[in-house]
């Protein structure tokens, strides 16, 4: 079974631009979550999608948004990029979003804003 | 805010020795998961322990959970240089409803010297 796939692996963007990151979950998994990892703040929850619906959102500004498609693939978008958005963005998938299932992570997209 | 707090922040041992990392959390949980991360890459799922379990084993890994103390420990036996990585605990809060949100600690950086 293929794991969680995130594309692209690396991105360099300029301040003010926008970016879209993609995540393909493990086949059969319906819950997709996004996390931001920075040296200063560690791993922080961005949002979670299940069956194309956002069920929970972390404490991030509205510039961070996401969506999930009918095939469970998910995208997150960051608009008006700031230097502080430079981070490793990780996507996780789980079977049904239930509280007793493991969450499996992709390799991440490393975003650098210059 | 970080739910889990790993202790110690850094640990350096010799190959063949055992490594123990601890995690404390603040709220009641459904389960607790341990992950490994190599050099800022993706998170590798190690083990999930449910709130009604006290101990779990997987190969050289042993995880314990004490819900009365809100703490967990990860023991890696007979460590190898390849175990060098950052280790994170992640909790799924009991009050999280139907959505799936993991809260991570800041991690323990384990260095295994050959």
Q: Which key terms come to mind for this protein?
A:
heterodimer, A: 114 residues, mainly beta, 7-stranded mixed β-sheet, 4-stranded antiparallel β-sheet, 53% strand, globular, B: 114 residues, 6-stranded mixed β-sheet, 5-stranded antiparallel β-sheet, 11 strands
H/E element order of chain B: EEEEEEEEEEE
Radius of gyration of chain A: 13 Å
Helix content of chain A: under 10%
Query: In DSSP terms, counting alpha (H) and pi (I) runs of 4 or more, how many helices of chain A?
Result: 0
* Low-confidence regions of chain B: none
For the residues shown, what is the average pLDDT of chain B? 90
**Tally the helices of chain B: what do you get?**
0
H/E topology pattern of chain A: EEEEEEEEEEE
Strand content of chain B: over 45%
Major protein interface = A-B, 32 and 29 residues
Q: What fraction, in percent, of the residue positions of chain B are helical?
A: under 10%
Strand content of chain A: over 45%
Shape of chain A: globular
Oligomer: heterodimer
Low-confidence stretches of chain A: none
Largest sheet of chain A: 7 strands, mixed
Beginning-to-end CA distance, first to last residue of chain B = 36 Å
Describe the protein in words:
The complex is a heterodimer of chains A (114) and B (114). Chain A has 114 residues and is an all-beta fold. Chain A contains no helices and 11 strands. Chain A has strands spanning 5-7, 10-13, 19-24, 31-38, 42-50, 53-57, 64-68, 74-78, 87-94, 104-105, 109-113. In chain A, strand 4 and strand 5 form a beta hairpin. Chain B has no helices and 11 strands. Chain B has strands at 5-7, 10-14, 19-24, 29-37, 43-50, 55-58, 61-66, 71-76, 85-93, 102-104, 108-113. In chain B, strands 2, 4, 5, 9, 10 and 11 form a 6-stranded mixed beta sheet that branches. In chain B, strands 1-3-8-7-6 form a 5-stranded antiparallel beta sheet, with no helix packed on it. The mean pLDDT of chain B is 90. At the A-B interface, strand 4, strand 5, strand 9 and strand 10 of A face strand 4, strand 5, strand 9 and strand 10 of B.
């Amino acid at each position: 079974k293929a794991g969680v796939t995130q594309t692209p692996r690396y991105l360099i963007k300029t301040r003010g631009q926008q970016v879209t990151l993609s995540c393909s979950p493990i086949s059969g998994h319906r819950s997709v979550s996004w996390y931001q990892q920075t040296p200063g703040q560690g791993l922080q929850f961005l949002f979670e999608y299940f069956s194309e619906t956002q069920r929970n959102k972390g404490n991030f500004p509205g510039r961070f948004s996401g969506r999930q498609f009918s095939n469970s693939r998910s995208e997150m978008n960051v608009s008006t990029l700031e230097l502080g958005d430079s981070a490793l963005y990780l996507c996780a998938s789980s079977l049904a979003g239930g509280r007793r299932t493991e969450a499996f992570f992709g390799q991440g997209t490393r975003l650098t804003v210059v | 805010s970080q739910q889990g707090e790993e202790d110690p922040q850094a640990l350096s041992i010799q190959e063949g020795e055992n490594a123990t990392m601890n995690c404390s959390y603040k709220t009641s949980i459904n389960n607790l998961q341990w992950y490994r991360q190599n050099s800022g890459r993706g998170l590798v799922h190690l083990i999930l322990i449910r709130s009604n379990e006290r101990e779990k084993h997987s190969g050289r890994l042993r995880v314990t959970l004490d819900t009365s103390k809100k703490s967990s420990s990860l023991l890696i036996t007979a460590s190898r240089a390849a175990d060098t990585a950052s280790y994170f605990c992640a909790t799924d809060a009991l009050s999280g409803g139907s959505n799936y949100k993991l809260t991570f600690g800041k991690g323990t950086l384990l260095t295994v010297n050959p």
